[in-house]
C-alpha cells in the first residue's frame, strides 16, 4: 500500500487549471440562460478563478481563450492574476468564429484565409510571451460536411504546413498542445478527428508538440485510458481538457457522467508517475455551465478530479503487480475495485484541513458571501462565446 503521507503529499501537490470561459455565461445553440453576477471581462473571470483556488488550494492557473479574453495589455492581465494569487495558464486559440473560417481555418483551400488563421495563432504565441504562459492549445473546427467538398489529403498538407510555422515560432520553454475532436461543427470529415492524427502531427513537429485529450471528444465507448497509456509511453501526452459527456461534446462537469472512467484515467496517470507537475501534463477543465451556478460547479469539478485521483493513489500497486504477474484476473480487478469503492472524501477533507483550508470548499463558498457580492456589483455579464 502507498503510505498515507505519500498519498496526502500527492494530493496536496496536484494542480488543476480552470478555464476562463467556464466562469462566463454560456449555453447551447438553443438558448443561453444568463446568470446574475457572472464576469463582465477577463479581469473578473480571473478574480473568480482566484476564489476557486483560494478555496480548493489546487487550482492556481487559469486558461485564456483568444479573442474571448482579448485585452490591450496582457502583461497587466498577468500582474492582475498574480495580485489575486493565481497565474495565467494555457492560451487557447480561436479560429472557429470568424466568417472567413466557414470552409476551414488552417486547412482552408484559400491561401489568404490560411494566412489569416496562422497569423492568429502566431499572435497567440506573442500573448504567451506577455503572459508567461507555457502552453498554446490548438483546437480546429476545420473539416468538411460533404464527400467531395475538398481533398482530405490536401487538407492534411495544409494543416502540417500551418502547424510547422507556428511550432517554429515557439520559444524554448513553450509548447504546443494539439487537441482533437471526432466531429462537430464538421459533420463528414474533421481534419484532426482523433488522437492518432494529433499524435502523428506532433511526432512530425518535434518534442514541443504534444496531444491534448479532451475527454468529451470521442466516439461513444472509446477506451480513453488506453489512449492515455499509449501517449504516456510515447511521451506525447501534454494535457487534458476534462469534462464529461453522455452523448457527444456535452461539456458537463468532469466526473459527473462517468466517475469510474475518470478513475481509470487517473490510474494510468498515477501508475506512470505522471501526476507531479514536473511530469509536464496539464490537467485542465474545459466545461460550460449552462444551467448550474458557475463557481460552485467549477469547485465541484475540481473536487471530482481530486476524488478520482485519491482513489487512484490508494490502489495497492504491489498487490496489483503480484496479481498481474500470477495471472490472477479476478484478484487484479479486485485491487482496482477496492480502491474505487473506497470513500476518499474524509481523506480529502483532512488534506484540506492540513493545508489550512475549509474541508468543504462548496459550503465555504456559499458561506463566503462572494456570490451575493458579485451579484450586487456586476451587471451585464458576458457570454463565453458559445451559443451566441
Ligand atoms: C472544442 O469543442 C473545445 O473543446 C476546444 O477546446 C475549444 O477551445 C473549447 O471547446 C472551447 O470551449
Ligand atoms: Mn476542449
Ligand atoms: Mn469540446
Automatic annotation (TrEMBL):
One GO molecular-function entry: isomerase activity
InterPro entries: L-rhamnose_isomerase, Rhamnose_iso-rel, Xyl_isomerase-like_sf, Xyl_isomerase-like_TIM-brl
Any Pfam family the entry gives: AP_endonuc_2
Keywords on record: Isomerase, Manganese, Metal-binding
Signal peptide: none
Residue ranges occupied by any Xylose isomerase-like TIM barrel domain in the UniProt entry: 74-251
Protein name: L-rhamnose isomerase
Organism from which the protein derives: Allokutzneria multivorans
Amino acid at each position: 500500500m502507498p503510505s498515507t503521507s505519500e498519498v496526502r503529499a500527492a494530493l496536496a501537490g496536484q494542480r488543476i487549471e480552470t478555464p476562463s470561459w467556464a466562469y462566463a455565461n454560456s449555453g447551447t445553440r438553443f438558448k443561453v440562460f444568463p446568470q446574475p453576477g457572472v464576469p463582465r471581462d477577463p479581469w473578473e473571470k480571473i478574480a473568480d478563478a482566484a476564489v476557486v483556488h483560494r478555496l480548493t488550494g489546487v487550482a492556481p492557473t487559469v486558461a485564456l481563450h483568444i479573442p474571448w479574453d482579448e485585452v490591450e495589455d496582457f502583461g497587466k492581465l498577468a500582474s492582475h492574476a498574480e495580485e489575486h494569487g493565481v497565474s495565467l495558464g494555457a492560451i487557447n486559440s480561436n479560429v472557429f468564429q470568424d466568417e472567413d473560417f466557414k470552409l476551414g481555418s488552417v486547412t482552408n483551400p484559400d491561401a489568404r484565409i490560411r494566412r489569416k488563421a496562422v497569423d492568429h495563432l502566431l499572435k497567440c504565441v506573442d500573448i504567451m510571451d506577455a503572459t508567461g504562459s507555457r502552453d498554446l492549445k490548438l483546437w480546429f473546427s476545420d473539416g468538411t460536411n460533404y464527400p467531395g467538398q475538398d481533398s482530405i489529403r490536401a487538407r492534411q498538407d495544409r494543416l502540417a504546413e500551418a502547424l510547422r510555422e507556428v511550432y517554429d515560432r515557439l520559444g524554448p520553454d513553450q509548447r504546443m498542445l494539439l487537441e482533437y475532436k471526432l466531429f462537430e461543427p464538421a459533420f463528414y470529415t474533421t481534419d484532426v478527428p482523433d488522437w492518432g492524427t494529433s499524435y502523428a502531427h506532433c511526432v512530425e513537429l518535434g518534442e514541443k508538440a504534444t496531444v491534448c485529450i479532451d475527454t468529451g471528444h470521442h466516439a461513444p465507448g472509446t477506451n480513453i485510458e488506453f489512449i492515455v497509456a499509449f501517449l504516456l509511453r510515447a511521451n506525447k501526452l501534454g494535457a487534458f481538457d476534462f469534462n464529461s459527456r453522455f452523448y457527444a461534446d456535452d461539456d458537463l462537469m468532469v466526473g459527473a457522467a462517468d466517475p469510474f472512467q475518470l478513475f481509470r484515467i487517473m490510474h494510468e496517470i498515477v501508475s506512470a508517475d505522471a501526476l507531479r507537475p514536473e511530469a509536464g501534463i496539464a490537467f485542465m477543465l474545459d466545461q460550460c455551465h449552462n444551467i448550474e451556478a458557475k463557481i460552485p460547479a467549477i469547485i465541484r469539478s475540481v473536487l471530482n478530479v481530486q476524488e478520482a485521483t485519491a482513489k487512484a493513489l490508494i490502489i495497492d500497486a504491489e498487490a496489483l503487480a503480484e496479481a498481474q504477474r500470477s495471472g490472477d484476473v479476478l484478484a487484479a480487478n479486485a485491487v482496482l475495485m477496492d480502491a474505487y469503492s473506497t470513500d476518499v472524501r474524509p481523506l480529502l477533507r483532512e488534506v484540506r484541513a492540513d493545508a489550512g483550508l475549509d474541508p468543504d470548499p462548496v459550503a465555504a463558498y456559499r458561506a463566503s458571501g462572494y456570490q451575493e457580492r458579485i451579484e450586487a456589483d456586476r451587471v451585464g455579464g458576458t457570454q463565453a462565446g458559445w451559443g451566441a
